[in-house]
Design a protein that fits this description.
about 375 residues; alpha/beta; Rossmann fold; Outer Surface Protein A, domain 3; 3 domains; seven-stranded mixed beta sheet; two-stranded antiparallel ribbon; 15 helices
Length: about 375
């Protein structure tokens, strides 16, 4: 959620949450724990799953505030049944397996409040089943129907070895995992561009990809990130998936279009407001040396499980010290601006932005 908040930039914690395709309720219960004051609705087409979720609910008082609804998330009556104006809508591990994903996204988009966000978890083009399903018939297995047994497990060990994975990575998975992620009549393993296009057609703007954010970590240890200026965070994440297709997408969308910082206009850039995020734990060291002094900073991000070491100038640290102060960048750097070239300002602000350490907001009127 720290990463989701960083790219979404909500004005307040979600007060109404919808979990679409909730299964037996694990995600809904986790969100209940994270947001105890929120109203949570969880929907699934399966009577059995809803019954199991309600059984768990009866055992634990902390889960009783979740409202479970049995309904097909592609139903035309979906919005009328679950309600609307949700601040946060989550659909994880569902749309890769449904016949009409666009109808589902339209339903969910109609349920999102104007300032709300949509989290979508779907298979990527790099998903292991994309190649493996094509090989199964050579060994006499129908990829549309799981026939578990010793022979299948031996073949899956062979797949593991040939794929360069630890032997047992897939071969030792439980039957229910194989039934959903390797066998079945419908499994969509699609690139990021497919899902962003589908959601855009439903009125949703792409904000970012969690897997692409993680994949960017090595780029920050050298200056190659400069080649990405002036692409937005969303555009960079799209480029990353083209180069290194994700196994699984964790994506954030919103009705509201994200602010695109004016990277090539230093005057407007200085008028932008800045806010920090909680993606990385960073204790800014005290000011030291001149504004151009390069400081070594280690960034450890638990939410993205990444570690990056940076060398950034003192003035960039000054921005981080005064983030969330409602001051314009130019006001924060009033003393330092004579020493900062427009190219240097752009370069280091873009670095912090691409790291999701900061967000820039629309500048105030001149």
């Amino acid at each position: 959620m720290e990463w989701i908040d960083a790219v979404w930039q909500p004005a307040y914690p979600p007060r109404r949450i919808l979990v679409a395709g909730c299964g037996t309720g694990n995600e809904a219960f986790a969100l209940r724990h994270r947001f105890p004051a929120a109203e949570i609705v969880a929907a699934d087409f399966s009577n059995r799953s809803i019954a199991l979720a309600r059984k768990v609910q009866r055992r634990f008082s902390s889960t009783k505030a979740v409202r479970f609804v049995q309904i097909d998330i592609s139903s035309e009556q979906f919005g009328e049944v679950v309600g609307r104006n949700f601040d946060f809508v989550s659909c994880h591990g569902v749309l890769s397996y449904v016949a009409r994903p666009k109808r589902v996204v339209r339903n969910l988009a109609a349920c999102i409040a104007p300032g709300g966000a949509f989290y979508l978890g779907v298979n990527g083009a790099g998903h292991f089943s994309e190649k493996w399903r094509h090989v199964l018939p050579a060994f006499g297995f129908d990829p549309n129907k799981l026939e578990d047994g010793p022979r299948l497990r031996r073949i899956l060990k062979l797949y593991d070895a040939l794929s360069g994975h630890r032997v047992g990575w897939i071969a030792n998975q439980p039957t229910e995992y194989l039934a959903g992620d390797l066998f079945g009549p419908l499994i969509r393993n699609l690139p990021l561009a497919h899902w962003t296009t589908l959601c855009r057609e439903c009125g949703l703007h792409f904000l970012g990809s969690y897997s692409a954010q993680k994949a960017l970590a090595p780029v920050f240890n050298n200056d190659s990130y400069e080649l990405l200026i002036p692409q937005s965070r969303a555009e960079v994440h799209g480029l990353v998936d083209q180069i290194a297709p994700a196994l699984f997408h964790c994506l954030i969308f919103a009705h509201r279009a994200p602010f695109d910082p004016p990277w090539h206009n230093a005057g407007v850039l200085q008028r932008c407001l800045i806010s920090s995020t909680k993606v990385s734990a960073l204790a800014c060291p005290r000011r030291q040396g001149s504004w151009k002094t390069l400081r070594r900073v280690a960034l450890k991000s638990v939410p993205t499980n990444t570690f990056v070491e940076l060398r950034i100038p003192e003035w960039a640290l000054e921005i981080l010290r005064h983030s969330n102060s409602q001051l314009e960048i130019g006001q924060i750097l009033r003393e330092a601006l004579p020493e900062i070239t427009p190219a240097s300002l752009r370069k280091h602000l873009y670095l912090l932005y691409l790291l999701a350490l900061i967000n820039l907001r629309q500048p105030s009127a001149p």
